[in-house]
Write a structure and sequence with these properties.
Elements: H1 2-26, E1 32-36, E2 42-49, E3 55-59, E4 65-77, E5 86-92, E6 103-106, E7 113-119, E8 124-125, E9 130-138, E10 145-152, E11 156-157, E12 170-172, E13 174-180, H2 186-212
Helix pairs in contact: 1-2
Length: 213
């Protein structure tokens, strides 16, 4: 019984140690740009954010990542009755928003130019997956919103497209930054594997000893 408790404690210690190494390695991971269409030449068109449900999509890379922030370029467009809506960004898994938002991003409620929005909670993005971003408004006067311009060309990072437009090379001005999910260090995996092998061998020896008695 004492041997079994020792083995369990030893393996648990190795597991905690490997987790600490993984967390330590992940703390140095900085946000990096996944998608950027901010610097593209103007396409001469866009949408009215806050009124239009449409937005911009992006595709993740081959690794899982956490969404760090999203920046968009929004210019106020007061309606005839005045009063602008307050803006929030929403992350979706499909272009028609049938499944509900995956998350909400908060930032300047009344932007005037490039504004950065961050998730209200941790959002894990799956690898090789397309996500959609919309800027929806609350309140405001009649026909008030924000102009969200589009650029034309190939954006930096993984290509996305403004799915409301007819041309796949037009992209609403947006930048997406992510933090890659840290992978366990080889030493941590080796320690964990070694602990499991050690525990298995001790169990086998204990069984053989019991049988021999």
């Amino acid at each position: 019984m004492k041997v079994q408790k020792f083995i369990i404690g030893f393996v648990s210690l190795l597991t905690l140690w490997s987790g600490a190494l993984t967390q330590k390695s992940g703390s140095a991971v900085a946000a990096q740009v996944l998608f950027d269409s901010m610097s593209l030449p103007s396409a001469g068109e866009g949408i009215t954010a806050g009124l239009s449900p449409y937005g911009q999509c992006f595709e993740t890379g081959s690794f899982a990542s956490y969404l760090a922030n999203i920046s968009v370029n929004l210019t106020p467009l007061p309606g005839p009755a005045g009063g602008l809506p307050s803006i929030q960004l929403y992350l979706w898994s499909d272009p028609i928003y049938s499944a509900g938002p995956l998350g909400i991003l908060n930032g300047p409620a009344y932007p005037n130019g490039v504004a950065t929005y961050t998730p209200t909670e941790s959002l894990l993005l799956a690898p090789n997956t397309i996500y959609w971003v919309s800027a929806l408004g609350t309140g405001g006067g009649y026909l008030s919103g924000y102009y969200w311009p589009a650029g034309i060309g190939i954006p930096v990072g993984n290509p996305g497209y403004a799915y409301h437009m007819n041309y796949l090379n037009e992209h609403l001005e947006m930048q997406v930054q992510v933090e890659l999910v840290p992978e366990p260090r080889p030493l941590a995996l080796w320690c964990l594997s070694g602990g499991m092998l050690f525990a298995g061998s001790r169990r086998m020896l204990c069984r053989r000893a019991a049988l021999s008695l």
